[in-house]
Amino acid sequence: MQLTKDIIQEYNNRLQDQHNEAFAFLKLQLDKKGIAANTLVEKIQDFQVAIPSWALGAGGTRFGRFSIGGEPGNLEEKIDDVGIIHALTQSAGAISLHIPWDIPKDTLAIKQRAESYGLSFDAMNSNTFQDQKNQPHSYQFGSLCHVDKVVRQQAIEHNLEVIEYGKALGSKSITVWLADGSSFPGQHNFRKAYQNTQASLQEIYCGMPEDWRMFIEYKPYEPYFYSMVIPDWGTSLSLAEGCGKNAYTLVDLGHHLPNTNIEQIVAILMMKGKLGGFHFNDSKYGDDDLTVGSIKPYQLFLIFNELVEGMSATSNLQTSKPPTSNLAWMIDASHNLKDPLEDLMQSLEAIRIAYAQALLVDREALEEAQLENDVTRCQEILQAAYRTDVRPLVAEARRLSGGAIDPIGLYRQLEIRKQLIKERGVHVVATGL
Ligand SMILES: [Mn+2]
Q1: Is the separation of the CB atoms in 245 and 273 below 8 Å?
Q2: What H or E segment, with its residue span, contains residue 335?
Q3: How much of the chain, in percent, has pLDDT values that exceed 90?
Q4: Helix (H, G, I), strand (E, B) or coil at 140
Q5: What does pLDDT average to over the chain?
Q6: Which residues contact 73 (CB under 8 A, 6 or more apart)?
Q7: Distance 76 CA to ligand 1 centre (A)
């Protein structure tokens, strides 16, 4: 289903007066502080986040999976769903595929379909955390770290194959996330598991085109695990350094132990030039994959505060591209109760809000206060930005790009989920979760 500009325009017309009022009020406040609202709006417009193909259906809980109906049953329908989100929000201009579920049967047709929605192909994702049908060797005891060379080789070849699919679609990166680890003490020789993983990653790295990037994800734990081969950002960073300049660490917000200072990790990785990108989500206890900003919005803001600071500090080293385009932004969440498309729109909004708030931080004043060890003032400066209601800025960015002032409002008014259920059925279950 294609959402036409007319439908969106007509909807916006009805909200226009209320929106104009809110935007004018905020603009006035910002003007008084010497901040140009229009410049902020442009930056927000440029900030695009990829949607992974596995986030479009209802995810499983530990105890069951409850379909929400009308889920996409194939790659074409997944692209259609991201197309809907992008048309409404104008902030999800890319889709991230997961192989083997998203192998295109007709690459050209898939590319054209994505283009028709203004979507590009973000990082490709490999999967060596479960066995596929007719796979000669099992990943039961690991993949890239496995003690047996033939298993490692199979996992390497899978990743190389993923790169080939990505090349055909115009993707420029691969994300490697490993479920490799041990369940009991003594099961792994930690050093050898690391060395095998490094050697395997190097082989994949060498198989990448020169203009590709590799993102190495880390995660400290899994249920039923004793150790992970890549448990933390330090291990990921050292593996990335062991591969080469186009290998980076990828930070998934849910992949940290409770109370980890993620913003500090971000700052150091950026300084090292090794931050590849983000998987956004939120969590209360662990890798809960909750809606971005639903639990810890202040943490999200603090992360963006480091990103904005780091990007301005390193922008003179980078190319003519806007600084944000050098990092890969993706939502990596799961939707068990909410309509995934609504949930993703909430996440996109939370990301842009945090970004906008971070852009409001008075950097000069903050640096001055830091140099004077004026701790109270430092906190005041950060919280003044965080407590600004930037929603009119975000809505204005969306409106100017051709999106809906209130995307979820229009989504509900058009009864899109009902239509998807009519087209695809109630019981279809999305793959790749
Ligand atoms: Mn992730």
Answers
A1: no
A2: none
A3: 89
A4: coil
A5: 94
A6: 424, 428, 429, 430, 431
A7: 23
Task: Give the Å distance between the CA of 290 and the centre of ligand 1.
Answer: 12
Give strand pairing partners of 282: 290
Residue 150 CA, ligand 1 centroid: distance in Å: 27
User: Is the whole model's pTM more than 0.85, yes or no?
Assistant: yes
Q: Which helix (H) or strand (E) holds 156?
A: helix 149-169
Rounded Cα–Cα distance for residues 179 and 228 (Å): 7
The per-residue pLDDT for 319 is 44
CA of 289 to the centre of ligand 1 (A): 9
CA of 279 to the centre of ligand 1 (A): 5
What was the pLDDT predicted at 64?
Answer: 77
pLDDT of res. 320: 43
Beta bridge partners of 94: 50, 120
Phi, psi (deg, nearest 5) at residue 76? -55, -45
Identity at 295, one-letter amino acid code? I
Kindly give the distance from the C-alpha atom of residue 52 to the centroid of ligand 1, in angstroms, as a whole number: 10
Bridge-based pairing state of the strands 247-252 and 213-217: parallel
Q: Which helix (H) or strand (E) holds 145?
A: none
* C-alpha 230 – ligand 1 centre gap (Å): 13
Ligand 1 centroid from CA 390, angstroms: 28
Rounded to the nearest whole angstrom, what is the distance from the C-alpha of residue 250 to the centroid of ligand 1? 8
Q: Residues with Cβ < 8 Å from 386, sequence gap 6 or more?
A: 298, 301, 357
Tokens 């095998």 appear where? 196
Distance 248 CA to ligand 1 centre (A): 14
CA distances from 326 to 178, 313, 315, 329, 363 (A): 24, 14, 10, 9, 22
What is the whole-number distance in angstroms between the Cα of residue 217 and the centre of ligand 1? 7
Residue 219 C-alpha to ligand 1 middle, in angstroms? 9
What are the structure tokens assigned to 246, written together? 């186009």
Residues linked to residue 277 through DSSP beta bridges, in sequence order: 250, 328
Taking the C-alpha atoms of residue 280 and residue 175, their distance in angstroms, rounded to an integer, is 14
CA 397, CA 16: separation in Å to the nearest integer? 13
Separation between Cα atoms, residue 125 and residue 123, nearest integer Å: 6
Q: How far is the CA of 239 from the centre of ligand 1 (A)?
A: 17
Kindly state the helix (H) or strand (E) to which residue 320 belongs, with its residue range.
none
Q: In the structure encoding, which two tokens stand for residue 31, read together?
A: 């003007």
In order of 85, 153, 253, the CA distances from 125 in angstroms are 21, 18, 17
